[in-house]
Amino acid sequence: MALRIAVWAPVAREPILNALRALDEVEIAEASDEAQFLRALEGARVAVLPGLAKFYSPEVGAKIASSPDMAWVHLISAGHDGVDAAGWPPGVRFTHPGGALSGAVAEHAFALLAALSRQLDKAVLGQTRQAWGKPYAQQATTLSGATLAVVGFGSIGRRVAKLASGGYDMTVIGVSRSGRPVDGYEVHPVSALLDVLPRADAVICALPFADETRHLLGAQAFAHCKPGAYFVNVGRGGVVDQAALIEALKSGALAGAGLDVTDPEPLPEGDPLWTAPNVLITPHYAAAGDREAAVRIAEGLVENIRRFRAGEPLLNPLTPG
């Protein structure tokens, strides 16, 4: 009997579909919107879609939870806030794309940090005005030899750490929800965050959004940061209390912030974050541009389909929390 797979792939679509078509005894039910996907889920054993709320909606979550056939959901995004919001259906396994997207996101995080430390945001403003003056030059700093706290030490956080320690000779301190050791790095649980922050010249956040991470980086956290530290977020906007971040930027407690994610998204016109001092915002595209990422996503899915059929443990399992 063919394995029915419901697919909603706004990213990596062609590599995923081509890889699935090459498999024997697979029935592909493809969708391009929520209504189609809800129909595709009828009789499906496997679902493939992003875990973001705009795709994994409460309606999609309810359909998956009520389906007697559904056994496994493979997320093709690093984030899974939609699943958190809709609820994790009992008896259904979840997997994620592992490190397929980590390289591009890590590079983007470091690009934001480097731009802030070298005052490139101010230089770009000067260029738009055709002004050669450089009153901000004395504020430029170097990352070499500095200490970086990476909050969220999963695949993205570890790639950030590799760039920092290998390319810039930075001391890296990891913070993760589990606090599990990682070879070559000092790692602490989230409960020790306030002890780590005063040691860091820069903080990069790569945490997913969950109930326990909501506004984790707020007024108390920013008050514990080293004066003049830089802050970068490539995790989820809801992990940060934006009002507290704006205040920390206005007061000078933070020297600058680089944000690829905000809360909400899109960031509304007129939001005070747009005009906060020393902030550099990119519209949530950190994962873009990796030419091989889509292929890696498809290859990981196919390997997990093989494992699923063979009754073997799936790669990159995902559980609540």
SSE blueprint and pairings:
Elements: E1 3-7, H1 13-21, E2 26-30, H2 34-40, E3 46-49, H3 58-66, E4 72-75, H4 81-86, E5 93-95, H5 102-117, H6 120-128, E6 147-151, H7 155-167, E7 171-176, E8 186-189, H8 193-196, E9 202-205, H9 219-224, E10 229-233, H10 242-251, E11 254-259, E12 279-281, H11 293-310, E13 317-318
Parallel strand pairs: 1-2, 1-3, 3-4, 4-5, 6-7, 6-9, 7-8, 9-10, 10-11, 11-12
Antiparallel strand pairs: 5-13
What does this structure look like?
It contains eleven helices and 13 strands. By secondary structure, it is of the alpha/beta class. It folds into two domains: 3-100 and 291-318, NAD(P)-binding Rossmann-like Domain (Rossmann fold), CATH 3.40.50; 102-281, NAD(P)-binding Rossmann-like Domain (Rossmann fold, 3-Layer(aba) Sandwich). Helix 1 (13-21) packs parallel to helix 11 and helix 5 (102-117) crosses helix 7 (155-167). The two termini are 35 Å apart. The model has no long low-confidence stretch (mean pLDDT 95).
